[in-house]
Amino acid sequence: MRKAIIIIMVILGTFLLIGAVSAQEDTNIKKATVKIYDFEPGVLWTPRALQLKNGDAIAGYVEYDGNGQFQKGTGVTAWYVGSGLNGDIDPHHTKLIKAKFFFKNKKGKVKTKTVHGTGGHISTKLIKGYTPYKAKVTYMVIK
Q1: In this structure, is the dihedral angle defined by the CA atoms of residues 88, 94, 97 and 103, taken in order, positive or negative?
Q2: Which of 24, 33, 125, 126 sits a CA distance of 20 to 30 A from 66?
């Protein structure tokens, strides 16, 4: 009986491993670096965003006061730009997985924060005395 359970566990483990490997081949994981901008209200983000070939864009921002769209902090956000006329708030083909934020103080010392996500937006709190200046973003292209 014990031997049969071990054999069944080995077979199930093999199927799980095969499934994980084939699922990994279907995903298209990419990395990019975006600059963090302190956008003024009413300024279009698209010209400063990283434009992806799939019609989506990714931009980094810092918000010092909080507003109707974003809380106080820094983050990266993705949205569908399309041809510029048919944009959308949500990304159509991009899912943000992870963002590593880089902060620098006046002396040049750098601190980082890594935040995981599952959608079109990843954000984090500011570090006192430090200014966010870039983020390395890991994202998945959804087909």
Answers
A1: negative
A2: 33
Strand partners, 79: 57
Phi/psi of residue 5, nearest 5 degrees: -65, -40
| 10 has a pLDDT exceeding 80 | no
Percent of the chain with pLDDT over 90: 52
Q: Give the single-character DSSP code of 107.
A: T
Q: Which amino acid is at 75?
A: G
pLDDT tens digit sequence for 22-73: 555 456 999 999 999 998 877 788 888 999 988 899 999 998 886 666 778 9
DSSP letter string over 21-87?
HHHHHH-EEEEEEEEEE-PPTT--SGGGSEE-TTSEEEEEEEESS--SS--SEEEEEEEE-TTSSS-
Residue 19's alpha-carbon distances to 7, 8, 90, 128, in angstroms, are 19, 17, 30, 45
Q: Name the DSSP class of 88.
A: B
Which residue in 136, 59, 50 sits closest to 100, CA to CA?
136
Average of pLDDT values for 101-129? 96
